[in-house]
Amino acid sequence: MSTPPGKRDAAGFAVLLVVIATAVPAAVVVLPDTAPYVMPQAVRDLALSDGEAAGLVRACGLALPALLLTAPLAAALVRHAPARLVLFAGLAVLLVAQALSVRVTSVPVVAAVRVAEGAGGGAVLPATLALARERRQRRAASSVWAGVLVAALLLATPLALAATGGPDSGAMEWRAILRPYWWLSGIALVGTALLGLLRVRPAGRTVPAAVSRAERVQLLLPVVPAGGFAFLAVVTTYDWSPGAQLLLAACGIAGLLGLAVVGTRDAAAGSPLGYAVVMLAAGLLTMPVTGPLAGLAGGRAVPLAAFLVGAAGAVAAALLAGSFGRGTGRGAVLCGYGLGVVAIVLLLATGAAASLWTLLAALCVLGAGTGLAVGAALRRTEAGPALFGLSLCFPAVLGGHLVVGPLQIARVGAVTRAGGGTMAALYALTAAYRLWLVAAGLIAVLFAAVTAWVSRSRTRGSPPGPADSDGAVLPAG
Known about the structure:
The chain is mainly alpha-helical.
């Protein structure tokens, strides 16, 4: 006796939630470059010279640039091909790359593994978003996706640091940084295969609307700035001055904001609540904020509890945003920005040496604010603009790193030239991080103002109708 379609659809929804909860973190946690923490073991094992050691750090940093280039292409692909197949392919690439990392024997192989991991993650993220929006329970699935993405961005660096081995744990331990939490990819791959077995095909299935030419163009627009940021991420590692890196990063972030505004205000494919701008803010205020904080707060002895609470706050706030009515979305987005500013002020007031409870409070507020803004904006956004905003999120992540990194390099370089010791260098890193927090707070205020402007004009001009309709009601991925 066959399983009734309703039960199969419920089972498929449950599997989809497991896939989202594992595939999204699997794609994000490979992005941080933790090579400096295991450099002595890697240099010994691979017999590297000083120049080759710098090349190893550069190779380990290729995952994020690869994801930047892949995500917009995958976003365009999932509007034409089945999202489940794109997700399966991305997870397979990610898992194979992590499996091959066990046999890494040279810097070029490390570079190939990292590029493959980034490319796999760049396919996974748009595909999971598309799958979430294809379900009948799209509101709940999209809210879960938004919360898990923000949580993964907050947790990526702390989890990656926790996965590195100790300095005296053996020569082979350093390869663990190339496959952190590889089992997440395995679970997601199995779950994606199960989605195919549980797929429901009712006779009255609604066919998604054809993708317009304007939407296709919009989805491919982020390729240009993403390619520029990917290029900068590589070339600036060749002894560029911190001032030049900061200037280019500021210009790049300004360009991303302009592109987000143009995309949001597009009459055919825009977002009523400024989702693209919100995703830019989410990229800038998550990994670039929690990444340096994780290192300053304890190196590899990261206080994971505080970051986990922040991640839980992000998921809870995104789920809460999914339950809001049509008229409360704009207020929820702006409230999310406000919470983000409060979190930055808390971090500024306490610093990296804050107590666990203070750090927990700041990260919980940051996670809740970002999750609330992303969840509320995504709820009112169509499928195409949702993928467009996702493609802008990770260039913003890299832009934030291109700001905080040169700030820290400049401060530490000044201390080193003055003959300062380890404690002076640590103080310089902390001072540079606090300067970045000031900049992040100003960015949050600016982006909140831009979001309020674009959402007001778009909301006024949008016709009345269902808040969550995008013309696609597919029962399973």
